[in-house]
């Protein structure tokens, strides 16, 4: 007689009563191992994996896109079936075949490229970009393709009928159901716009000092701490020190009360296959730059692999988002409720700046602070952003609680 195990939908977190089956990772009737991922589950807070509680043959009671209540039976596992041993030798045997196939493709590509009359740099660019060499008009001696010819081609300065015809769209339409997570995000963002008095203040940061600092010490920093030295750690540290000076920016409204936090849990917006996620780095006020870099890297890897837990996605007293990695010049980020403020970073562009009566070219980043005016006054918001700017332009201030060393010396 078959031994049937009924798997019920576990509670992914407090106050969550139902979830949505985003994707089935195995087929109905498959024989699985214990702890093997069976499905991806979307809640209104995160995407989680549902793992097999026992080894056996799976029979699903739900399908993709179904809404499932917590405690509902998701699948049955017939434990009388045992998974077959993994054929590791065969997998090893297949590896050389795959390598040979990949090598043959590379050889074929090299053979084709060998016939192209181009400089080595131009040939490398053609390989990397997949450009059609036959369509590139060479301006070198004897029609040889030069680097600038490839750049001109990629920039659209070429005569090609298939390229000029556009990207080949049609009049067709398609629909795709919004995930539970995306629907919740949409609801929260609209609520923020309707329920808060949100304003945004802007400033600019001269990134010269930090860029020089990174250039000088990035190798030694990586060798000592095992992580790269990025811009995000400087911004996170500067924000943390500024929050200590302006506690209202680190607070939130709860009914008729203001809740202040004697710690800094910083949400770091990171890109993931599911969209933009905001995991939280806890107690950043106790961290140095290396610890911040390590924490951000770990969260980013988990976001990429879909391994973030609900605990890592909830809470937070302040958020930092970096649209600059996507090329954003300026934006007005939306507050992540119930927080009261969010800092937006943007791309770094060389701009003319007046320095001691002279015009100099400096790497400048525009920064934006969106805040809830119900709890944060304009003076506090502007002063907070100025404090962040000052610490980024002179990172030594971060060592002295947002003050210059001379101020500490004079007891100011």
Q: Find the structural class using helix and strand composition.
A: alpha+beta
Rg from Cα: 27 Å
Number of strands: 19
Beta content: 15-25%
Counting DSSP H or I runs of 4 or more residues, the number of helices is 11
The CATH architecture assignment of the largest domain turns out to be 2-Layer Sandwich
CATH topology heading of the largest domain: Chloramphenicol Acetyltransferase
Roughly what is the average pLDDT, rounded to an integer?
83
Query: Secondary-structure element order, as H and E?
Result: EEEEEEEEHHHHHEHHEEEEEEHHEEEEHH
**Gap between N and C termini, in Å?**
81 Å
Q: CATH-wise, what's the superfamily of the largest domain? A: Chloramphenicol acetyltransferase-like domain
Helix fraction by DSSP (H/I, runs of at least 4):
25-40%
Question: What does this molecule look like?
Answer:
With 412 residues, this protein is an alpha+beta fold. It has 3 domains: 4-78, RNA polymerase II/Efflux pump adaptor protein, barrel-sandwich hybrid domain (OB fold (Dihydrolipoamide Acetyltransferase, E2P)); 88-163, Dihydrolipoamide Transferase, CATH 4.10.320; 180-409, Chloramphenicol Acetyltransferase. The chain has 11 helices and 19 strands. Strands 9, 12, 15, 16, 17, 18 and 19 form a 7-stranded mixed sheet that branches. A 4-stranded antiparallel sheet has the order 1-8-6-3, with no helix packed on it. The longest helix is centred in the first third of the chain and has 27 residues, at 88-114. It is globular.
């Amino acid at each position: 007689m078959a031994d049937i195990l009924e798997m019920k939908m576990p509670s992914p977190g407090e106050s969550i009563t139902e979830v949505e089956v985003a994707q089935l990772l195995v087929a109905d009737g498959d024989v699985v191992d214990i702890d093997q991922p069976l499905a991806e589950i979307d809640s209104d807070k995160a995407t989680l994996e549902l793992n097999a509680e026992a080894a056996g043959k799976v029979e699903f009671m739900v399908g993709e896109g179904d809404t499932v209540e917590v405690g509902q039976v998701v699948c049955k596992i017939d434990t009388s079936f045992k998974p077959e041993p993994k054929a590791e030798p065969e997998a090893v045997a297949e590896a050389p075949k795959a390598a040979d196939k990949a090598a043959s493709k590379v050889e074929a590509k090299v053979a084709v490229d060998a016939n192209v009359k181009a400089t080595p740099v131009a040939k490398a660019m053609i390989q990397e970009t997949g450009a059609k060499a036959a369509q590139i008009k060479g301006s070198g001696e004897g029609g040889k393709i030069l680097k600038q010819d490839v750049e001109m081609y990629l920039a659209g300065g070429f005569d090609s009928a298939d390229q000029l015809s556009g990207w080949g769209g049609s009049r067709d339409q398609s629909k795709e159901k919004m995930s539970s997570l995306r629907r919740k995000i949409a609801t929260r963002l609209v609520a923020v716009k309707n329920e808060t008095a949100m304003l945004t203040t802007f400033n600019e940061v001269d990134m010269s000092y930090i860029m020089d600092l990174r250039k000088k010490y990035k190798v030694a920093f990586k060798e000592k701490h095992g992580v790269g030295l990025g811009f995000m750690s400087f911004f996170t540290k500067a924000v943390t020190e500024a929050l200590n000076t302006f506690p209202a920016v680190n607070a939130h409204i709860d009914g008729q009360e203001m809740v202040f936090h004697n710690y800094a849990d910083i949400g770091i917006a990171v890109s993931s296959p599911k969209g933009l996620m905001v995991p939280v780095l806890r107690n950043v006020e106790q961290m140095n730059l290396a610890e911040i870099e390590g924490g951000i890297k770990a969260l980013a890897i988990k976001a990429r692999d879909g391994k973030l837990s609900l605990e890592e996605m909830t809470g937070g007293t302040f958020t930092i988002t970096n649209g600059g990695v996507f090329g954003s010049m300026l934006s007005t980020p939306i507050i992540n409720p119930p927080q009261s403020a969010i800092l937006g970073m943007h791309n770094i562009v060389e701009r003319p700046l007046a320095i001691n009566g002279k015009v100099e070219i400096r790497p400048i980043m525009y920064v934006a602070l969106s805040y809830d005016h119900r709890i944060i006054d304009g003076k506090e918001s502007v002063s907070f952003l100025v404090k962040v700017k000052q610490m980024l332009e002179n990172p030594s201030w971060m060592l002295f609680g947002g003050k210059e060393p001379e101020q500490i010396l004079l007891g100011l």
